[in-house]
Write a structure and sequence with these properties.
Layout (H helix, E strand, L loop, with lengths): L7 E4 L28 E6 L6 H7 L4 H6 L8 E2 L4 E7 L21 E2 L16 E3 L6 E3 L3 E5 L11 E5 L10 E5 L7 E8 L5 E13 L13 E7 L12 E2 L10 E8 L4 E9 L6 E13 L2
Parallel strand pairs: 3-5
Antiparallel strand pairs: 1-8, 2-4, 6-7, 8-11, 9-10, 10-17, 11-16, 12-15, 12-17, 13-14, 13-16
Length: 298
């Protein structure tokens, strides 16, 4: 069963928005194709090193047109061997690979994930953070978060969250810290991810709890602090859905511990969840997360 079925509030990134192409002008003297000619869609296979921007330039279309012609849930991730549709091509004359004097298209660079690579965006929690409704509640901008509400006065409160840049770091320059003294919090970090269709996926995250009585002299798992990883194989965002594959609870006190799970994608999109919660309050109630990953094993 799901780890917690209490009411959930999704806290979105207020800065998130759909990227759009910058306006571009075209030198009409470079357009030699007959406007009345019949156009068709062609299929293109992604090659290592490709980006949506380079493919769009190669076929003389915009990134926006390329995204619109394909059901790309995450246009920031494509894979070698993946097939996409190139719209509005005029056979048999190929469209010029570049239009002279046209300004470069403003678009996010598309990442090609090599076999065995991390499919998560900012799995290391090293990227930009954004506030989620409060000045002291900041999580990595590439992730969403759901906060469980309700219970006793001390139960299921919104934690403080921020990029931690001190000694509790597993790798890189920072980890994600969440904390709430004399209270508990129950949250789901989540990210929808484009994956190879039908792939077997291994999701994991490293965590470190620091839960202690006042004065930090008595630190233990008395409050039952847990971390757990789940994967929704259909890309759903309800952590209580019956098809979410959850791994076991881990309670790493005072050292790094690994939580993980394995699931098979039902299509080309999955959602990875990181669940964290405690049963009872402690004076010090801190959690550090670092180095999350989602890897296709086949």
């Amino acid at each position: 069963p799901p780890p917690n079925s209490a009411p959930i509030q999704t806290v979105a990134d207020p800065a998130a928005e759909t990227p759009t192409d910058a306006a571009a002008t075209t030198d009409e003297t470079t357009l030699t194709a007959d406007a009345s000619a019949t156009t068709t869609d062609v299929t293109y296979t992604i090659q290592p090193g490709d980006t949506l921007n380079s493919i769009a330039q190669q076929y003389g279309i915009t990134v926006t047109e390329l995204i619109a012609a394909n059901t790309l849930v995450n246009p920031n991730t494509i894979f070698p061997g993946q097939q996409i549709v190139i719209p509005n091509q005029t056979p048999p004359t190929p469209v010029p690979t570049a239009i002279p004097d046209a300004p470069a298209e403003t678009a996010p660079q598309t990442q090609v994930v090599e076999a065995g690579g991390n499919l998560l965006r900012d799995g290391s929690f090293e990227g930009a953070y954004s506030g989620r409704g409060s000045y002291d509640f900041n999580i990595p901008a590439e992730w969403d978060i759901q906060v469980i509400r309700g219970g006793a006065e001390w139960q299921n409160l919104t934690p403080t969250a921020f990029p931690h840049q001190a000694w509790v770091i597993r790798d890189g320059a920072q980890s994600l810290n969440m904390n709430k003294g004399f209270a508990t919090y129950s949250v789901y970090l989540l990210q929808r991810v484009a994956v190879p269709e039908g792939a077997t996926l291994n999701g994991q995250v490293w965590g470190w709890y620091h839960t202690c009585d006042a004065g930090s002299q008595n630190c233990s798992n008395a409050s039952n602090p847990v971390i757990r990883v789940g994967i929704a194989p259909d890309g759903g965002t309800d952590p209580n859905a019956a098809n979410v594959v959850w791994g076991g609870n881990v309670s790493p006190q005072g050292s790094w511990g690994l939580a993980g799970t394995t699931a098979q994608a039902e299509g080309g999109v999955v959602t990875m969840f990181i669940y964290a919660a405690q049963d009872t309050p402690r004076a010090i109630n801190e959690l550090y997360l670092d180095d999350a990953s989602l890897v296709a094993s086949s």
